[in-house]
Amino acid sequence: MATIKATMPGVFYRCPSPGAEPYVAEGSDVSEGQTIALIEVMKTFNEVKAEVSGTVTKFLIADGDEVSMGQDIMEVDGA
Amino acid sequence: MKVLVANRGEIALRIVRACHEAGAEAVAVYSDADAGARWVELADAAEHIGPSPAAKSYLNVDAVLAAAKASGADAVHPGYGFLAENAEFARRVAAAGLTFIGPPPEVIEKMGDKAVARRTAREAGVPIVPGSDPVSGAADAERAAAEIGFPLLVKASAGGGGRGIRPVAGASELAGVLATAQAEAAATFGDGTVYLERAVPEARHIEVQVLADGHGNVVHVFERDCSVQRRRQKLIEEAPAPGLDPALRTEIADAAVRLARHVGYRGAGTVEFLLAPDGTYYFMEMNTRIQVEHPVTEVVTGVDLVAEQLRIAEGESLSVSQSGIVLDGAAVEVRLNAEDPDNGFAPTPGQLERFDLPGGPGVRVDSGFAAGQRISPFYDSMLAKLICWGADREQAFARARQALAELRIEGVSSTAELHARLLADPELCEGPVHTRWLEERGDGAP
């Protein structure tokens, strides 16, 4: 089990835009380098990329919540 | 009067100051991240309105209204950004029996829809950039483009403030850009309506400050030049616009007053124009709120725009008449943002370790922060606005250069050095420049 961490502080978003489909859902597979979420820092949107490949088992933070640097975002079961 | 200041940062403090000067009480609001902020400390009372993300605090209409009610405020000042141009918010403030310090909701709505605003300007006899009504599909857009000519811009009807604009260089790009722009507008603004507008090359951004009270008085407080921009965001603003022919100045200002009168404006507002090199000018949009760069107007006219907003909201007449508003000298404002110009202007939240502010004759600094405070990642990156007045433009620039040399910001990056370089640039010092000047010279490139 690995966790993906926030690389910057800000506001966490699971979707590319309001009302859009989330980048990834629990239970789906991600590959290294894939965009899995956005973090808004001072009105600038930054893509969060998966550092590992595997299956997303759990999101550890809700859409629109505050996230701090290094905070765990999601759990991934390594492939 | 007891005013709920429904904003944060420097503009919240600006409003607190104006309230106190007018003998009114000011109630601040704050999110988790802003507990202990300077504007909270300096207000007479404060209400917590929610978690740090703006959507859960400063943009949360229910939370802001609950704060107004809990504090016993009888008016709400929205500042700029956040809920300032949200007609629904203005309606709900009024429905709660409070005074919204701004124009009537119908006017916010009319000017907020850029396509409707263009139509309204045309009705008022104010020139608009040649363009189309909202376009639906590619065929529709091609027909409209044939009349307008290239290059042109695809603009989101719900956009504004430089957002929701995409350039089209030639006919072959049109269909593709149109589809992208519609999708982007739908995602960003919740409304995919777009229209086409002719691009005006080498245009300056000239905007006119207007004030209107509830007694039929509408005045202009002269113009500002905000042509130094990066990606359509203003970096440096001036008043008056350098080198503007006096007859043209009067003509543009009169056009702004005509529009404000036509829409039944009330409060402080700004009518933005594009000014082409040949002297033709076109209405761009109207901002129905106080503007970030309002201080340059204040220091060259002596008119306190926020104080006038409060007077108007209380049903009083403007304290000034058109003939009593005269230009005195020149002013320049630079926006000091917590961004790193050497790293693509990446925002740099963090702790303000050092924040030594400049002083001296003609120097004004508007900031919501103090040394030791945290610049949080949740909101915009503005640390402070530096406004310098001089008897002429040269003196205003010289004072701004000196002020920037005195400034010490540590703990976060800032745009101070970029500003120091720009204010010494021969082309800018000679002036005027157009809105693409900064990007074309490679400075502020992404």
Please supply descriptive tags for the structure shown above.
heterodimer; A: 79 residues; OB fold (Dihydrolipoamide Acetyltransferase, E2P); 4-stranded antiparallel beta sheet; 8 strands; B: 446 residues; alpha+beta; Rossmann fold; D-amino Acid Aminotransferase, Chain A, domain 1; 3 domains; 15 helices; acetyl-CoA carboxylase activity (chain A); fatty acid biosynthesis (chain A); lipid biosynthesis (chain A)
Structure description:
The complex is a heterodimer of chains A (79) and B (446). Chain A has one domain: Beta Barrel (OB fold (Dihydrolipoamide Acetyltransferase, E2P)), CATH 2.40.50. In chain A, 0% of the residues lie in helices and 48% in strands. Chain B is an alpha+beta fold. Chain B has three domains: 100 residues, 3-Layer(aba) Sandwich (Rossmann fold); 69 residues, ATP-grasp fold, A domain (Dna Ligase, domain 1), CATH 3.30.1490; 237 residues, ATP-grasp fold, B domain (D-amino Acid Aminotransferase, Chain A, domain 1), CATH 3.30.470.20. In chain B, the strands form six sheets. Chain B has an eight-stranded antiparallel beta sheet, with helices on both faces. The longest helix of chain B is centred in the middle third of the chain and has 19 residues. Chain B is globular. The interface between A and B is medium-sized, with 17 and 20 residues. Chain A: One of its GO terms (biological process) is fatty acid biosynthetic process. Chain A: InterPro entries: AcCoA_biotinCC, Biotin_BS, Biotin_Carboxyl_Carrier/Decarb, Biotin_lipoyl, Single_hybrid_motif.
